[in-house]
Write a structure and sequence with these properties.
The chain has 274 residues and is an all-alpha fold. It folds into two domains: 155 residues, no CATH class; 115 residues, no CATH class. It contains ten helices and two strands, in the order ααααααββαααα. It has a two-stranded antiparallel ribbon.
Length: 274
């Protein structure tokens, strides 16, 4: 099979797994993205380990999972907000553990470990807030709200690819991502607005102006998320973060847009959800 076919089939399986977990319910989605967020952080730490720096894989991933789990339990009104304080000792342990090891580049090791948690784990934790966007009623699960986030991201990606291939001439930020063009970015945004407007027209959550505004800021955030990952990969001189998804690379490659898009999307729906 050629790369396009492999990429298409892999993408279809990925979309089916994500949508399936959403439709199965909060617990299924929570479990799937507990794995995805942890493995994405693992890929990030692996990138950071290409040189002499060595992030703390185990403690970083444990802290990451703690952030993710506590956010879910808090949003479901299972635990109180004071449980977030348990994260403080975990963060304090990172420099302590580093001091107890005989390794070079200690400061960079600490910085990469903590940055990975902030950059990857916290955005993924926002997905748990989107699961039940009205915290006062955590049992009110709105799967279509979560699906809407992925509809926006996927439509933007598809539109950017098609318009970029057909019309792309002017590079967006060539020093970071030489394949992205202004034509692709604009086309992807317009296509995402069209698809999301159609999708949300079946639900009485947002008016058309809100959908357009929500889609626009989510796509812009997602684009910068994509570019940020490209900047990181260029810094470490790698093409893909991994090989877990044939034709797509690693999970970090696949979910880079989501890291910036999810928090922005949540902020918007928390303000305008009917």
């Amino acid at each position: 099979m050629n790369n396009f076919t492999v990429r298409t089939l892999s993408g279809a399986v990925y979309a089916a797994v994500v949508i399936g977990s959403i439709l199965l319910g909060k617990v299924a989605f929570f479990a799937l993205f507990a794995f995805i967020s942890s493995y994405t952080l693992f890929e990030f730490y692996r990138l950071c380990s290409r040189g002499e720096t060595k992030p703390q894989f185990v403690l970083g991933i444990i802290t990451s999972l703690s952030v993710y789990v506590v956010t879910f339990l808090y949003n479901q009104n299972i635990i109180d907000s004071k449980f977030f304080f348990i994260l403080i000792p975990l963060l304090i342990m990172i420099p302590i553990v580093e001091m107890l090891q005989d390794r070079s580049h200690n400061i960079l090791n600490i910085v990469y470990t903590i940055f990975g948690i902030a950059y990857i784990s916290i955005p993924f934790s926002f997905l748990n807030l989107i699961l039940s966007p009205v915290k006062q009623t955590p049992d009110l699960y709105k799967p279509e709200i979560m699906i809407g986030l992925f509809v926006i991201i996927w439509a933007s990606d598809a539109g950017a690819y098609l318009f970029g291939r057909m019309l792309g001439k002017h590079k967006l930020i060539p020093k970071i991502s030489p394949n992205k063009t202004w034509e692709g970015a604009i086309g992807g945004t317009l296509f995402a607005i069209l698809i999301s407007t159609i999708f949300f027209s079946f639900f009485d959550y947002f008016n058309t102006i809100n959908v357009i505004g929500m889609t626009l800021i989510t796509v812009v955030a997602g684009t910068f998320g994509d570019l940020t990952e490209s900047l990181i990969k260029r810094f470490f001189d790698v093409k893909d973060s991994g090989k877990i998804m044939p034709g797509h690379g690693g999970l970090f490659d696949r979910f880079d847009s989501l890291l910036f898009a999810a928090p922005i999307y949540y902020i918007f729906i928390s303000l305008f959800l009917n």
